[in-house]
Amino acid sequence: MKKITITLIVFSFSIASFCQGNTHKQESGKYEGLANTPPMGWNSWNTFETNIDEKLVKETANIMVASGMKDVGYTYIVLDDGWMTKERDANGDLVPDPVKFPSGMKSLIDYVHAKGLKFGLYNCAGTKTCAGYPGTRGYEYQDARFYANLNIDFLKYDWCNTEGINAKEAYTTMSNALKTAGKPIVFSLCEWGDNQPWNWGKPIGNLWRISGDISPCFDCEDNHGSWSSWGFMKIIEMRKDIRKFSGPDHWNDFDMMEVGDGMTNVEDKSHFTMWSMMASPLIAGNDFRKMSKETLAVLTNKELIAVNQDKLGIQGFKYANQDGLEIWVKPLSDGNWAVTFLNRSTTSKKINFDWTKNLIKDADFNLELDPSKAVFKLRDLWLNKEIGTTKKAFISDIASHDVITLKLTK
Ligand code: GLA
After folding, report:
1. How confident is the model over 57-99, as pLDDT tens digits?
2. Where are the domains of the chain?
3. Ligand 1 centre and the CA of 18: distance in Å?
4. CB of 152 within 8 A of CB of 120?
């Protein structure tokens, strides 16, 4: 009898607390299916760092539409570090900088949405962001509600000032907070690969950075003392072996692009090609207001974008390297393949590639390209024309740092 009484008391207590308003259901797990192909867009950091404002965002959104970038798939406008004031308000809420955004963040987001684009913001798992603005640590659920109320679509979540905390736990907490807030938001982990997010990020986020920051150079390392930033080929080389962890809705993120940020046009073309071959998110980082025709042409090459956005979502791999002439291969849907010849050396090279003598195996995904068994049509994705079949060897010159990308179709 005594036992029953205790049970009844506990039961009625829990009903009472439920009725008193403790009705918030804690959700967990990321929003699924928000990034079935690699996200495409623009981020403010590479060119502007914290020098951002509403005029820049509006002009960038206008150009994204007017230039045809939106039509080929660019969607997200992401404000990186520097959009807030240095302190939270009296309620502990983040405060968009009223000097940089005099019309208010909500009105800016509505403006971007009205253009048919999506909008993203940045914060950090630590106590402060990398540039010293308020971080989210301890405010995860409050900040997630703030983003949901603003109606953002994308959150980049960085890793500065996180001493002593566990990366998987910190990103899980924010992922759950976003889910609980109830607005589907692409969750972009930016933890630089320090804690191998490819091993644990899939249920938590839609994409994850795999390296430190990019630098606008082909193959350099920019040493800043305690950290380095990296030329695009350094990032590719560093993370070419984690390809089996990337795929639809859980992408290895090779960082925002540096196309149009000071490299030669040939290098920009190679950079864009390799980001496409690696199925990396395609987030431009240049100043659209000063974009040359050549830069726009690189960023809007539809045939390369189709390689990047292929629904199989497989990251490419390095098949061969001879004296700096590399061959990179990406399996595509419908049994098709993309093959990129990349001249990583400082002198021009000759390509003489006999397809029928090369059986190309993708051991990670158990696929095989065997031109000795089936003939493939060849299309040059930069010249945008058919160039023959795999029956004949492919012979061409290739300039230093240049690429030739061919699509093989059955
Ligand atoms: C880190 C990130 C960058 C950028 C800056 C902002 O370095 O890796 O992409 O977000 O912080 O401070």
Report:
1. 999 999 999 999 999 999 999 999 999 999 999 999 999 999 9
2. 40-308, 317-409
3. 42
4. yes
**Residue 131 phi, psi dihedral angles, 5° rounding:** -95, 10
- pLDDT for residue 17: 38
Report how far ligand 1's centroid is from the alpha carbon of 158 (Å): 7
Distances in Å between the alpha carbon of 338 and those of 69, 175, 256, 304, 333?
A: 23, 34, 22, 9, 10
Per the annotation, the verdict on 397 as an active-site residue is: no
Which one of 2.60.120.10, 1.20.1260.10, 2.60.40.1180, 1.20.120.80 gives the CATH number of domain 317-409?
Answer: 2.60.40.1180
**Tokens at residue 243, please?**
């390809």
Ligand 1 near 130 CB (within 6 A): yes
Check if 191 has its Cβ closer than 6 Å to any atom of ligand 1.
no
Q: Which helix (H) or strand (E) holds 176?
A: helix 167-181
C-beta 341 within 6 A of ligand 1: no
Res. 23 pLDDT band, cuts 50 70 90: low
Tens of pLDDT, residue by residue over 194-251, are 999 999 999 999 999 999 999 999 999 999 999 999 999 999 999 999 999 999 999 9
Q: 213 catalytic, yes or no?
A: yes
DSSP 356-384: GG--EEETTTTEEE-TTTS--EEEETTTT
| Of the options 3.30.70.1400, 3.30.470.20, 3.40.50.150, 3.20.20.70, the CATH number for the domain spanning 40-308 | 3.20.20.70
Q: Which of 46, 49, 78, 80 to mutate to test the pocket of ligand 1 (most atoms within 8 A of CB)?
A: 80
Is the pTM higher than 0.90? The answer reads: yes
